[in-house]
Design brief:
With 458 residues, the chain is mainly alpha-helical. Helices cover 60% and strands 7% of the residues. The chain contains 21 helices and six strands. The protein has a two-stranded antiparallel ribbon. A two-stranded antiparallel ribbon has the order 3-4. A two-stranded parallel ribbon has the order 5-6. A hairpin with a 3-residue loop joins β1 and β2. α16 crosses α17 and α18 packs across α19.
């Protein structure tokens, strides 16, 4: 039996009344013609599961159950599958998650038509989501192999696969349980709720005692990453890193912190007796997501990247003066913060962690509420993208916008005091209340008040 036929039977079984071909087509994201074509097969299937198809002109299709026990035995597993389809088939982002998780979780080929069937949708209905998934995978430097008759297979370096899997958890909050993602993805994030909390607590305890500062959203991602690491290693997947990486990070604070984290996890949990490459990459991961604002001497901690970053800072500031007439270095503290952001992007480029797509939440994007900050961040990011020949991630956009928002917030402007006309349709008396409230908060912005009647304004 085809998935589409199963979906038609399920929709008719749970509907309170008959459904027309058009109504079914809308629910399944196919054409009414396709529904009518499938109905002949649906009609022949139903007697085998204790039911009969009824078709009434101008009313639609319905199911008459003749053997309730036999029909319920068929419907129960179908209901579970259909709940998955409802969760992942009706929402664009949910469809994206389902498809992306499937492609990064399996080393086998997956046919798009099979994925569409699993979601009870047509292939054309998920075209946009498939394209979105391809862009997401590309941002993680993962490649796809497409072969006629076989489908699509994703491949790339192990650490890029893990990073993509970590991001596809989607809601990076330690109390969130994984949704109905499918068995292939779930096996890589498999961990009991209690153990997951314990792993996170051990990691955070060690991180707090170190000099490494990482933003809250990144600590949430790392807590999920540690579970994926253990499950991937236990399944035989190993990291293959460039030989130069260890010599580049072995003397850093991130490397020593990474070693302590894995030693702490190994002491309390099974599966964390990991090879040296895992410590090296964790150091790289910590380096790429470290909050460099708290680093006192960037030039000493990151000599490999600071010189390039400082040179790029000067070029950027000159370009902003020329194109926008804006002096980014108006405040002396900006130099350190901007250099920190640029060091971060050079680290990401060097280790192949640049341009990664991420899930962002409203509270992380507050700086974009300022049109000026958002526009200038785009201008700066465009300059860097052109000069560095790389993709600037949304993470970096947000950090730039936050820095620019901070600069504009501290900048003093000449203000022309305003002359206000106050009017209230309910009478002049209420204007006095309004006047007092404005004066108590914004006296320095007001030159004068004039209370008038509504007809005078007209």
């Amino acid at each position: 039996m085809k998935r589409r036929q199963e979906s038609i039977i399920y929709q008719l079984a749970v509907s309170e009344g008959p459904l027309t071909a058009d109504e079914l087509a809308k629910r399944l994201s196919v054409s009414a013609r396709t529904i009518k074509y499938e109905m002949a097969e649906v009609k022949s299937i139903l007697p085998r599961i204790g039911a009969e198809l009824l078709a009434r002109r101008n009313k639609g299709y319905s199911i008459l159950v003749k053997n309730r026990n036999l029909f319920d035995m068929y419907l129960e597993p179908l209901s579970f599958q259909s709940s998955l389809a409802n969760n992942f088939g009706a929402d664009d982002n949910a469809r994206f998650l389902y498809i992306a998780r499937k492609l990064v979780s399996s080393s086998r080929f997956s046919k798009i038509e099979d994925i569409a069937d699993e979601l009870y949708l047509s292939r054309s209905a998920i075209r946009d989501e498939v394209n979105h998934v391809m862009s997401f995978l590309k941002s993680y430097h993962l490649e796809t192999d497409c072969k006629p008759g076989l489908g699509i297979r994703t491949f790339g370096t192990e650490y890029h696969m893990r990073m993509a899997m970590t991001e596809l958890f989607a809601v990076h909050f330690h109390k969130v349980l994984l949704d109905n993602a499918g068995m292939e993805y779930a096996k890589w994030t498999q961990c009991s709720y209690e153990e997951r909390q314990d792993i996170r607590h051990v990691f955070l305890h060690i991180l707090r005692e170190s000099e490494i500062k990482v933003t809250d959203t990144n600590t949430q991602r790392l807590a999920i990453y540690f579970i994926i690491v253990r499950n991937r290693c236990n399944a035989g997947y190993r990291l293959k890193l460039p030989e130069s990486w260890k010599s580049e990070v072995v003397d850093t604070a991130e490397y020593h912190t990474a070693r302590k984290i894995y030693d702490g996890l190994k002491e309390k949990f099974e599966g964390y007796d990991l090879p040296e490459e895992e410590t090296v990459f964790l150091a790289v991961y910590l380096m790429s997501c470290r909050d460099l604002w708290s680093v006192e001497h960037l030039e000493k901690e990151y000599p490999l990247y600071y010189k390039e970053a400082d040179g790029m800072r000067k070029e950027l500031c000159e370009d902003m003066k020329k194109t926008c007439g804006i002096d980014l270095m108006y405040f002396p503290w900006v130099e350190k913060e901007l250099c920190g952001l640029l060091v971060s992007i050079f680290i990401s480029i060097h280790f192949g962690l640049d341009g990664l797509s991420r899930f962002w939440y409203d509270y992380e994007n507050q700086a974009f509420n300022s049109p000026v900050s958002a526009a200038l961040a785009c201008t700066v990011a465009g300059f860097l993208q052109d000069r560095l020949k790389t993709t600037i991630s949304f993470t970096f956009y947000a950090q730039l916008a936050s820095l620019i928002f901070k600069i504009t917030s501290f900048t003093e402007y000449d203000i022309k005091r305003q002359r206000l006309l106050l009017v209230n349709s309910n009478g002049l008396g209420l204007n006095e209340i309004t006047k007092k409230r404005i004066e108590s908060r914004y006296r320095h912005l007001i030159e004068s008040f004039t209370i008038v009647e509504l007809y005078e304004i007209r």
